[in-house]
Amino acid sequence: MFLAVAQGGTVRAAANALDVNHATIIRAIARLEQKLNTKLFDKLATGYRLTEAGSEIVELAAQMATTSSQIEARIFGRDQDVSGPLRFTLPASFATDLLMPTLTAFRANYPDIALEILSSVSVANLGNREADVALRVVIGKAMPPDNLYGTRFCEFRVGFYVNRDLAQARPSMPCAWLLGMDEAVPTDWEPGGGIRMAATPVRFTEMRSQFEAVRAGMGVSLLPCFLGDADPSLTRVPGSPVRHIGDVWLLTHSDTRRTKRVRLLCDAVRKVIEEHKDRLAGHGGRP
Fold first, then answer.
1. pLDDT score recorded for residue 287
2. In contact, 113 and 86? CB cutoff 8 Å
3. Which one of 12, 100, 185, 282 is CB 3.0 to 4.6 Å from 225, fit for a cystine?
4. Running DSSP on this structure, what letter comes out for residue 98?
5. How far apart are CA 236 and CA 71, in angstroms?
6. 221 CB contacts (<8 Å, ≥6 apart)?
């Protein structure tokens, strides 16, 4: 909790990070200061600021946290039971549109494994046991950290999609760019096929709503090829590029990869990803 406050700068940020009540954080910091007989934070209107004493121990506290996680991971790696907790992190679209039948079968085959599915684009720290298995798109030419054990499956591509009926109708009204919060309107190409684009985009905070908006005919959006190509109501925008944004990796920590339930999940995921490599890489898409 000391580290969470030091890193987040506020009690509320620490409470959100640790999923506990903020009063619990305040009491824990007070107990720690009492035990060490020193003040670790200055409590300001804008948040908590480390004192000189707090600054001196924060690095040591981080080392303690890392060592604790390593001990847990090392013991977890010896666990050969087909039961107990198992955290799997992956992008939400991979869970909902690619792997849900596989995860359902896994749950049926191993009901004593307490599977926790963390559907997020955020990168979980496998070394700190935030997750045990990760299916990730590693962006660009980057490589996973050295302490992770992984399998690279295929390239991951995205393309621009529009409702097929909308594209064929060539509407008189301009189509909207349907963008994520951090995406910019493309400036290096223009849609073909008579599609005209409006100057004002529509933005979304998550992929599922963006995907449904394309299906409904709201406009043009950048989507993973495995999503866009699989939907018969969508087509790639004429003249649009298909972009390679990274590679698909299945990752575990070097200390936990031999745990039986980790191996069982990895085997199940590996099989289905191998079957869909062409979809993920944007090959064989609908015209």
1. 47
2. yes
3. 282
4. I
5. 49
6. 160, 161, 162, 177, 178, 179, 210, 211, 213, 214
CATH number, span 81-287: 3.40.190.290
As a dihedral over the C-alpha atoms of residue 231, residue 237, residue 240, residue 242, rounded to 10 degrees, the angle is 0
Handedness of CA 31, 34, 39, 45 (dihedral sign): positive
Segments making up each domain of the chain, as ranges:
2-77, 81-287
Sequence-distant (≥ 6) Cβ neighbours of residue 16 within 8 angstroms: 8
Listed residue (50, 48, 57) closest to 22, CA to CA: 48
Which class in CATH covers the domain with range 2-77?
A: mainly alpha
- pLDDT above 60 for 63: yes
Handedness of CA 95, 96, 97, 99 (dihedral sign): positive
Q: What does the pLDDT average to over 63-70?
A: 76
Residue 143: Cβ within 10 Å count: 12
